[in-house]
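Quick bug: DUF4295 domain-containing protein output formatted oddly.
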Amino acid sequence: MAKKTVASLQSSSKRLTKAIKMVKSPKSGAYVFVESVMPPEMVNEWLAKK
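Here's what came back:
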């Protein structure tokens, strides 16, 4: 299960996107949130990764 949250961030000359993914931890079995800031073009491939 992955929950997709995407927020657009703009810095001086570069557009960046902060993506948050909910991932099940292999150790405890609990869900944890993984955050990353990247260019908008890379969001879909990052969310598709397990």
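Actually, after a second look the formatting is fine. The mean pLDDT is 82. Closing.
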